[in-house]
């Protein structure tokens, strides 16, 4: 995997021994720094996406992390095989991190997250398909606001997050997600939005412990059916047929 050095902002590839690393979860804006663009730091620092990368690195470095994983910078999406492998290994990538910082660019730590009218409750981060596994998988999740100020942790905000996502609070208190039925886990993603129809299926691969080659031309229905078939191969939980 590739990691971004929080001091030098240079990307390095690790093949075997991987150092401890932080990870950033975010919703994509119109302009993100890509793997190709960040390799040239002179021009990268002039890019609209630099502020987010710099903020993430500064935060991680302040808590002692020399390395951070940012999907837009660390995955070469122009390489089809690498992109496919990255999507299939993303669940483990989050699982093996030291901490995940969830950057909510539309929220503020000046508001009470338990307030139904707070921007935290309405943040688009909770509405995206890929952020579901980013919420559930890391050992620790810390929510940051638009100015990189801490709002709270997944544990401290568990009651509010449960209301927002309909995910049982027990999940955020340590209960293994594998103990929930297939249908229950699928319901957690039912109202999430994705830019591509196929991404209604792909983000859930890790949550069900399956792998499949992403095909971004097959359409949402075929991707969904393929995922169901893969789940049936590894699970005898009949609640899958409720879908």
Explain how this protein is built.
- It is a single chain.
- The chain contains eleven helices and seven strands.
- Helix content is 35%, strand content 11%.
- Strands 2-1-4-3-5-6-7 form a seven-stranded mixed beta sheet.
- It folds into two domains: 2-175, no CATH class; 176-242, no CATH class.
- The chain is globular, with a radius of gyration of 18 Å.
- A hairpin with a 5-residue loop joins strand 6 (141-144) and strand 7 (150-153).
- The protein starts with a strand and ends in a 9-residue tail after the last helix.
- The protein has 243 residues and is of the alpha/beta class.
- The mean pLDDT is 93.
- This is HET-domain-containing protein.
- It holds the Pfam family HET.
- Residues 21-110 form the Heterokaryon incompatibility domain.
Keywords, separated by commas or semicolons:
alpha/beta; seven-stranded mixed β-sheet; single chain; 11 helices; 243 residues
Query: Radius of gyration over alpha carbons?
Result: 18 Å
**How does the major sheet shape up?**
7 strands, mixed
Order of the strands making up the biggest sheet = 2-1-4-3-5-6-7
Oligomer: single chain
Quickly count the domains: 2
Please give the share of residues in helix.
25-40%
Q: Helices and strands, in N-to-C order?
A: EEEHHHEHHEHHEEHHHH
What spatial form do the alpha-carbon principal axes imply? Answer: globular
Question: What is the distance, rounded to the nearest whole angstrom, between the alpha carbons of the first and last residues?
Answer: 35 Å
β-sheet strand percentage: 5-15%
Strand segment tally? 7
Catalogue the unreliable spans. none
| Count of alpha/pi helices | 11
Which structural class do the helices and strands define? alpha/beta
Q: Look at the structure and give the mean pLDDT.
A: 93
């Amino acid at each position: 995997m590739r990691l971004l050095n929080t001091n030098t902002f240079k990307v390095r590839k690790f093949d075997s021994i991987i150092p401890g690393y932080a990870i950033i979860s975010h919703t994509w804006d119109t302009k993100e720094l890509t793997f190709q663009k960040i390799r040239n730091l002179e021009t990268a620092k002039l890019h609209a996406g630099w502020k987010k990368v710099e903020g993430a690195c500064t935060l991680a470095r302040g808590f002692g992390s020399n390395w951070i994983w940012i999907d837009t910078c660390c995955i070469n999406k122009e390489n089809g095989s690498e992109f496919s492998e990255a999507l299939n290994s993303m669940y483990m990538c989050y699982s093996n991190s030291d901490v995940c910082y969830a950057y909510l660019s539309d929220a503020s730590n000046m508001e009470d997250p338990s307030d139904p009218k707070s921007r935290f409750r309405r943040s688009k981060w909770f509405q995206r398909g890929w952020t579901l596994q980013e919420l559930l998988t890391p050992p620790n999740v810390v929510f940051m606001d638009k100015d990189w100020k801490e709002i709270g942790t997944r544990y401290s905000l568990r009651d509010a997050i449960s209301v927002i996502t309909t995910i049982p609070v027990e999940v955020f208190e340590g209960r293994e997600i594998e103990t929930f039925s297939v249908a229950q886990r699928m319901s957690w993603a039912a109202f999430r939005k994705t830019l591509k129809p196929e991404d209604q299926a792909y983000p859930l691969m890790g949550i069900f412990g399956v792998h499949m080659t992403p095909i971004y031309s097959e359409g949402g229905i075929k991707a969904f059916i393929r995922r169901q078939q893969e789940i049936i191969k590894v699970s005898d939980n009949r609640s899958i047929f409720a879908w």
